[in-house]
Amino acid sequence: MTSLSYELSWPPHWPFAWRPSLAAWAEPRLADEIQVGAALALAALALCLAAWRWRWLVLGAVPLAYLSAERLELLLVPATPTSFHTSPTGFTARSVADGQALYAAHCRNCHGIDGRGDGPEAGKQPVPPADLTADHLWDHPVGDLFWWVSRGMSGVDGRPTMPGFAAKLSEAERWAVIDFLHANAAGAELARTGRWPHDFMAPDMTARCADGGRVSLSQWRGKPVHIIVEGVDGLARGGELPTILVGGTPRNSDCAVEGAEARQALAATLNLTPDDIAGSQFLVSPEGWLLGHWYQGGAPAPDTLAFVAETLRSICLSSPQGNRFRGHH
Questions:
Q1: Partner of 52 at 20 to 30 A CA spacing, among 37, 168, 265, 309?
Q2: pLDDT digits (tens, 9 = 90+) for 188-215
Q3: Phi and psi for 220 in degrees, rounded to 5?
């Protein structure tokens, strides 16, 4: 496993047990009520400051009455000190691959090979281990996942239900585990439904090009990118699409990724082993999302692939909802 080393920059720890729920704004009716309540509160505060009459503070209770206790509960969710921290890894193929090895060494006995909570030690735990391929994984900020991996979890009775790994794994290694959990959960969702979930990002990777230069997948943002895993028969080209070969050597205008990490990370997003994805092809959106993939022998003709990519490119660049175009083809 490659050693991970980089400086981590942190925002301040969140000091409260609760945090605002951004999901509440996704409900149009509740979002409207929040805006009205906020406007009333600001009006009461402005009148209080202008006239210095404390009776205006009574009006401050109006928004709280307007937003019932039930609605207030929807506005707040439990928080951890690292709720607002973000991953420093860049979701790279290297981080996903290293996270997979760390998961196998420290998590698999309880959570299972595939992360479904069915490991050999699962039955011995006071609470069944979580299914890390279920939809709930996507509901948690990465900062919360980092806190739980670092400090562990406890049940409602205060008893530990999962150990923390801060003493065993470095901060970078804990973030790598989280990267793998997301790649693995995306692959499991693809296997269940035929679609990747939640606008899933392609693992970043660095390739060596035919002209001797190097380029990362993230440097090609703004263009659809064609990824081809070594082993394909009858290689399909996507017209003028930038192409990354995973394995092998670069040819013509292509760039190639050496080593096993990219293949391992892409395999996780398909819920397969690295050996099983020989000849697979991927289409990445201009924003970096995985749009679709084809198994060996199933890719469209080059002109069709180019047409699909350019059509998706125009949609993605012209629509704020463009990154919703994801799927398994």
A1: 37
A2: 999 999 888 767 999 999 999 988 899 9
A3: -95, 20
First to last CA, the chain: 32
> How confident is the model over 73-100, as pLDDT tens digits?
567 788 899 999 999 999 999 999 999 9
**Parallel/antiparallel/unpaired status of strands 206-209 and 160-162:** unpaired
Q: Which CATH class is domain 206-324?
A: alpha beta
Nearest Cα neighbor of 97 from 256, 260, 280, 254 is 260
Give me the residue spans of the domains in the chain. 18-78, 93-193, 206-324
- Contacts of residue 123, defined as CB under 8 A and 6 or more positions apart, other chains included, come to none
| Long-range pairs for 241-250: beta carbons < 8 A, 24 or more residues apart | 241/305, 241/306, 241/309, 244/205, 244/207, 244/217, 245/207, 246/205, 250/207, 250/208, 250/209, 250/210
Angle between helices 93-106 and 261-270 (to 10 degrees): 70
Rounded Cα distance between 204 and 157, Å, is: 41
Running DSSP on this structure, what letter comes out for residue 201?
B
Q: Does domain 93-193 have CATH number 3.40.50.1460?
A: no
